[in-house]
Amino acid sequence: MEQNNLVENNRTQMRRGVLEYSILLVLKAGEGYTSSIISRLKAVDIIVVEGTLYPMLIRLKNQGLLTYRWEESPQGPPRKYYTLTEKGAQQLRELDQAWMDLVRSVEAIRTIPEHLLIG
Amino acid sequence: MEQNNLVENNRTQMRRGVLEYSILLVLKAGEGYTSSIISRLKAVDIIVVEGTLYPMLIRLKNQGLLTYRWEESPQGPPRKYYTLTEKGAQQLRELDQAWMDLVRSVEAIRTIPEHLLIG
DNA sequence: TTTACATCCTTGTGTTGCAAGGTACTAAAT
DNA sequence: ATTTAGTACCTTGCAACACAAGGATGTAAA
């Protein structure tokens, strides 16, 4: 019932496509738990919220791409630290390729020469 | 009930994020109707199907980003040729920015230095 | 014992890409 | 004339999923 901000919508849409990739990337850099993952992503302007991240981490774990271990927190309840599995690392390599292909595709389409257009 | 092909899934996911952007880009290059848009995108390895494109073109038209005109086809029923409106061109400029920002973000996250990681 | 905070998690909603199926028009073949 | 083939339009129903909102539980300080 709400007329959306078209652009903000599309930034969100674009981000969605790379969310899983982004999460695997930060976990490759080093293990993390929910808040730290959110912080790292925010540091590069990729906005994720808890309600998105929890289900996704669980999904990735169920797919065998991640494992976790419990660790005491200096404050509050213990944390679930997630790590890439070998399968996760493999998946990440494939996503790397997918990302590079996508960048190449978009670059290509940004520079279609007129005479190659049909119809 | 079906175990998905993880990678193909993710290529699809990534593509989704840039679909609207891609469509505006090809229409900036020159007006087109459904089939010609699909062909142009396929030429750069971005796969879209009819069932996706029709609703999307209608949505973009309703948002005022596109207009169309009818034109006789050499064979079969007339075609709906879509063109960017001024508002569509404006939106495209903003999507261009969003895309470049995303590429920059992902690039940044691919190269997080260890010592910047927390927790 | 109450407040503050950090951590975990679930539920409900809205969007949307896609598979599948449907209608209609033209032209060629039977 | 009818059927077939090809091209174009469009809709319906399903499944995935990001996010907002809300909830439970643990520690520590006031």
Describe the structure.
2 copies of one chain form a homodimer. The first copy, chain A, is mainly α and 119 residues long. Chain A has a single domain (6-116), classed as Arc Repressor Mutant, subunit A (Orthogonal Bundle). Helix content of chain A is 60%, strand content 10%. Chain A contains 4 helices and 2 strands; from the N terminus they run αααββα. Chain A has helices spanning 6-29, 34-43, 50-62, 86-109; strands at residues 66-71, 79-84. In chain A, α1 (6-29) runs antiparallel to α4 (86-109). The longest helix of chain A has 24 residues, at 6-29. Chain A is elongated and about 60 Å long. Chain A binds a DNA duplex (30 and 30 nucleotides) through residues 12-13, 15-16, 19, 33-35, 48-52, 54-56, 58-59, 73, 75-80.
